[in-house]
Amino acid sequence: MTERTPLLHYRLSTSVNESEQRSPPAGQVPERHPGSPRQRSTHQRQQPKKLSTFFGVVIPTLLSMFSVVVFLRIGFVVGQSGLYQAIAMFLVAYFIICMTVLSVCAISTNGALDAGGAYYMISRALGPEFGGSIGIMFFLANVCGSALYVLGLVEAIVGTFGVPEDGTGATSPYQVLPSGYWWSLLYGTAVALLCLLVCLVGAHIYAKATFIIFLVVMFVLGTIFVSFFAVWPHTIILPRSATHNPAVNGTGPVVPTTANFTGFKLDTLLGNLWADYTVDYTTETMMTFATVFAVMFNGCTGIMAGSNMSGDLKSPSSSIPRGTITAVIFTFIIYNLLSVLVACSCDRVLLQRDYSFLRDINIWHPFVTIGVYSSTLSAAMSNLIGASRILYALARDDLFGKVLSPAKKTSQSGNPWVSVLISWFLVQLVLFSGKLNTIASIVTIFFLLVYAAVDLACLALEWASAPNFRPTFRYFTWHTCVLGIVGCAVMMFLINAIYASASIAFMLLLLLLIHYLSPTSSWGYISQALIFHQVRKYLLMLDVRKDHVKFWRPQVLLMVSNPRSSVGLITFINDIKKSGLYVLGHVQLGDLNTLPSDPLQSQYDSWLSLVDHLNIKSFVNLTLADSVRHGVQHLLFISGLGGMRPNTLVLGFYDNCLPKDKLVDPSMSTSQSTDPSGLSQELEQQPPLFHFAPLRRAIDRQDYGEFGDGKVLGSQEYVAIIADAMKMLKNVVLARYFNNFDRTQVLSPPSSSPGKGAVYVDVWPVNLLRPDSCSYVDTCSLFLLQLACILNMVRAWKKATLRLFLCVEEGRSVRGSEEKLGQLLKELRIKARIYPVPWDQQVALHWQRQGKWGKKQQSQTPDTIKEETKPRPDEEEEENDEDYVNSFPSNTMRLSDDYLSAVNKLILDQARPPPAVRFLYLPRPPADTHRYATYLHQLELLTRDLGPTLLIHGVTPVITTDL
């Protein structure tokens, strides 16, 4: 491995080391996950993840980032650019890759990460279009990378054992192999066949040898460090290719034939501090800062090796960030230490004229050769393995239809042998090029494009602002994603502008092809979330068929009778919408047939002025109906367009609280209260914001709405609205005691308060009207947790603390229930404090009322409720558990006021210090409409004097643990 080894072998070899990212886990063949989350969880149970952070992330990443670079490239970088610029290059290069590392860590900690690495992350985050196009390019990069390493290994072997082609004769007794293009192709084919046999027999052979290869590389690296101190200064004969004088007729400067290893000397260090760019003796081209930086940067790639082992890690969410960052820091330290040691002990001539000088100054020369051979061969095999697994994953995902269907075939052990054969065939075709120059640039650019796509995926998820994008790794922002994209793009064009442009065009062509030809996937489409968040004019692009739970967000219809008393509720719901659709709805009672014109048209200006005045992001939707119930039905049916339709109805609570005017102009308040007869004239003089009707002066048992014509909404109709919304599969939120809610005051409590300025949000995710059911994992409970978490994600509410109250009974395992709930919160990435609350006394009050019948009955249908006036224990029916938890069965109808008052007191007693807002579970209204008044009465007793409270009922899944 001597003089004839070209710089290209050193230059762009590690860029292909991403193959090591693809190395399969020890003892098994990685397979693509099945489609559904339930199938994936079953698959993961069948093949448990077992790799630790060190073996699954640190070792693959270190091997990917080191490889032959650390042996053959350090001298080139320091010799051409000097120590100062070399360190600066490492700082810039590692800054670029660290931006991508942050994106990888963020995506990998946002839910369950399956096997597949970068392809899986990009495809599941950006959708099939980006995933498929990047997957094809990743596959081609691994194919070319495998060929690159095979050619590099062949040239290294020929350089050491081959007979020189110039006919000068062998200078070593080991030079016995014939040289030439066809001989090199033959050697390369033999190496590729060896890699093929390993992949066909089983990928576990290479996986088990990974640790041994790592030990070899670390041992060789250790001998290099020792050699700087143990080897005496001596003179080294430069390679013949480096001593060749390109000047014509010998008129050029004399090129030295020897150089010195001086050991640690100050003069040597001073001579290597500054740049001295010369002609590269292997390519005979003049070096510049840009060309040297491009060569050096390839040694910094390979950062996603750990993330590609995601399917086989014990804890991917913690292992990938820790392992990747550890490997990056370690390689950065090693590169800089080697640069300093080289600059202190080697002549500039030696660094510029002999890129294999580390072998010549080693305590035993073959050590470096062994390190180069082992790392290069392992990289070639793992690139082939990686390419076959990517092709198999693309075939399994059916993004290209029948074109890749043969690649789905596997052996009985699960080895995708057809994909291996296809990958090997393509590697063999690339070997016919016989040159590293062309392959190396393409490989590096393809990998940089993949890194840029990972940054783009993280940027899209961050800008989409989806509630379910809350990675536990928080040391990233959209700025780091942009810097990563820009850095990768700059490096692509710095290496080769033509190849970079062609690769981007090829990616866009694949993207369009997949977009129009591939079937609809169930991964979720980030494009839908981005369109929703960014612009309203693209509403037609929103497709409800592509909705996915991980991009769910609240789309709220808030019914407002009179904004004068609803300012607090309007501003609070604006916080909880999480960049979703927000519609202020209002029902005007009347019949258009009896009116000369639409009375709503003149009210829009006032409502729009209200939106501007309160500085909220909301639409306004007004309707005319003969009743409030019909009006709410109209708004639920017609509000929104396309994929932007309300999924949550918010109503004020039906109680006796007298509303207070929060929009009154202080200069007009006195005259309004003392001279009601002049009110209409004053309204005409006020700006549009104050053109709303005055509030009622007496208690009308109606906080939702008395309209301008004096009609009042009754309790029966109020509960019917709730029932209608649930029939329409809308989530329902009832807001009580928000008439005096002041957001600024709540979020900035005085330091002298009992909580010393702390803000709390209390969540009771159990149906308190069902003391015989303590389920915390039904749809409604998870909806409560999601809304509370969304509120906590808002900038103004980030400092608020979520308090989750766990109702427990004596005799049950309190600790076990608390740990189970804590594990659920961990999986959902929700940070909250859990407080167990004993409520045996309250439950006892309930069972005293129910008697023996209540203890025996587990469920009862609404029809039985109508037929019975007294409980009959001989009749018993079974219900579905989900319906049972969310229903309002007969024993709930029999709840006593004592029990409800006791539960209300229990909630108040736990509020030390009092929370800013409470989230309570709202059960379904009873099927028997005659029970509506009882239902409303029970809700009133339950929430009496609790302060700002939301009674919430969710009907649709809104949360996921998948990526």
From TrEMBL:
Q: Which residues form the Amino acid permease/ SLC12A domain?
A: 56-557
Which Pfam family would be a valid example here? SLC12
Keyword line: Membrane, Transmembrane, Transmembrane helix, Transport
Q: Which residues form the SLC12A transporter C-terminal domain?
A: 569-656
Which parts of the chain span the membrane according to its record? 54-74, 86-113, 134-161, 181-203, 210-232, 286-306, 327-350, 370-395, 416-433, 439-464, 476-498, 504-526
Composition-biased stretches, type Basic and acidic residues, lie in: 864-873
Q: Identify the domain of life.
A: Eukaryota
Protein name (database record): Solute carrier family 12 member 9
Recorded source organism is Seriola dumerili
